[in-house]
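DM between two lab members

TW: hey, do you still have the Phospholipase/carboxylesterase/thioesterase domain-containing protein entry open?
JB: yeah, one sec
JB: this one, 273 aa:
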Amino acid sequence: MEQRRITFQDTERRYVLIPPENPEDGPQDLLLVFHGSLQSPNVIRRFTDFTFDALASCNTIVAYPGGIKNHFNDARKHLPEVTRELGTDDVGFTHAIIDELRQEFNIGRIFACGYSNGGQMVLRLLFDAPGLLSGAALFAATLAAGENLAPTNPVEAYQPTPLLMIHGTLDDKAPYEGGMAGIHAKRTRGEVLSAPATGAYFAERNGAGEPQTSNPYPDVEITTWPGDNRVELWTVQDMGHVVPSGKELDTRLGKNTDSFTAAEVVAEFFELT
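TW: and the structure you got?
JB:
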């Protein structure tokens, strides 16, 4: 693990790098993991029980960007945080990390996943950096609804990208059924779509097929919109605002699941090697 610093927009920013333990010849995949509100790179690593670190044992580089004041300037209009007040360019910051890593590694495919505010940052990348990602994953995050969706680019700039979503039905901070999202009632993040509606939105733009369902675990239903740019929604019954990792978390976030870990699903979905 390497703690790294990079100057961007005249501000020292940080990210954590997990280089591959056994790199292979040829291009290496880069997986960006964006933390949630009030977290940091090291907090999200502990929060997910270091399960994403373990992916670096493959031919994959794992990097955890750090937000300003523990937040990313995501694609929602309503974001009452310092990073929005400062007009932070986190899309540019992401590019700066990638550019720095390209100087050291033979970067091939680039993937991004994020939890909560970090998932919203991944959504911003899909609109404001179209074509950058070979795949994206969202944990406890759904698309902002109506006027609350406010990326810099028009939504028409989006380019079809495989998308994985993992969401709990009892998430009270990013509600599975949609509605007002946020940590505090007085500091909401605006209205968001439901998880199924978010999946359908991207499936349509990805040119994916009709949805199919499966139940690999008693508490999990997977809805798959098939195609070259498929969309998968893992609906986890009774799970709260968490990332499945097998770790016991603060009960205020709600129940977790021990049926699977998000990192394992991400590795399979992105075909990391």
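TW: got it. The chain has one domain: 2-270. The CA atoms of residues 51 and 263 lie 6 Å apart.
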